[in-house]
Amino acid sequence: MARKKIELGDIFELKTSKGYVYLQCVRIPVDKRQDVELVRIYYKVHPTQMKDFSLIQKSSFFYLNFVLQAAYNRKIVEKVGNVPLESDFKPPRYFRTKNPFGEGWQIVDSVNWHRETIEKLTNEQLKLSPWGGWNDTLIIERLDEGWTLENWKTEK
Fold it and tell me: What is the pTM of this model?
């Protein structure tokens, strides 16, 4: 049986081997057959469950496409609160990914899917979130090992 539909600003908890990480729903797709939710994933792994989420938006985070409604329905994540999005919030337009055709990176425009291949990231491009999505297992592994956008390098 499906659980209640998610809403913008909903905060979800994901258990890891080191504690708990938190995700916030920032975009719900219009057509769920073609797209998934966009979430903010907060880096900090909390050793115990959080109770007060009022300061969460001041924490460091990155964005990912994630099958949030499906994960919620399957009890992979638990809804633990809601913090309204900032009044001027707009989902990010640009993301980055490793260049599948060689060295370097590709910057992806999420509106038109145009890709620009570059060899070295600028300081601003280092702040771009990954293009695509991760499953819950990869989110847990990466956060437990201290992964951040700034230390994400092209894997050899």
Answer: 0.90
